[in-house]
Amino acid sequence: KEFTGDAWTVKPSLDLTLTGNFGDDETDGTVHWAGVENLSTNVSSEVVDNFTYGATLGVAAKTGNFSLGLGVNYTGSSNVDEFGVNANARFVF
């Protein structure tokens, strides 16, 4: 919903996200060391978590040819937490 004042139009936003990552999300391998015989190391890695979730909260404002915005976001999973902030300003000729 937009809110309109004297010369400004303000629009808040909220986005919630849940993403399922299906399929092969792990990898296994063996590392062989150069110059060393009979020595190898087994490695296992999870490439992506099964689910990621996030939220973005922002506000945009516009007056005439000038607009600006500010937002914060969070993305998380069982292994990762990520926070972000963004801002923008724009003048259209």
Give the topology.
Elements: E1 3-4, E2 9-20, E3 26-32, E4 40-46, E5 51-63, E6 66-76, E7 81-91
Antiparallel strand pairs: 1-2, 2-5, 3-4, 5-6, 6-7
Distance between the termini: 26 Å
Radius of gyration: 23 Å
Shape: elongated
Q: Given the helix and strand composition, which structural class is it?
A: mainly beta
Largest sheet properties: 5 strands, antiparallel
The helix fraction, in percent, is under 10%
Organism: Candidatus Anaerobiospirillum pullistercoris
Protein name: Autotransporter outer membrane beta-barrel domain-containing protein
Description of the molecule:
- The protein has 93 residues and is mainly beta.
- It has one domain (3-91).
- 0% of the residues lie in helices and 68% in strands.
- It has a five-stranded antiparallel β-sheet, with no helix packed on it. Strands 3-4 form a two-stranded antiparallel ribbon.
- A hairpin with a 4-residue loop joins strand 1 and strand 2.
- The two termini are 26 Å apart.
Top keywords for this entry?
93 residues; two-stranded antiparallel sheet; 68% strand; single chain; elongated; 7 strands
